[in-house]
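Now for my pick.
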Amino acid sequence: MSGCLRLDRFIVVSGRLCAAGVFAGELLDADGTTIGWGSRRKTAPAEIVRGLRGATAVIGPVDVDLLGLTVSVPAFTLDTGARMRRSSRSLPEAPRPGLEPHMVSGAR
């Protein structure tokens, strides 16, 4: 099975940041022939991780029901395109390997 997420937005559910969007998947036969495809609107836990070079969204893990099968999607990352700006104030350096978790609150 292969698939994708069309991310609509980030929302806060019960005080926790989540990614809301549509998960879509395609079920393939052993020879690569498409058996079917399906999609589901779903929210998944999310976290914004700030590193030395910018911010990354970590989405998942999440279970999605596609084509009558429960598909377990492991956590994956999404580059946000946000970059750290230089400041005259010195900021504490993130621990190695360069990622420091930060929760974002009030995301829309």
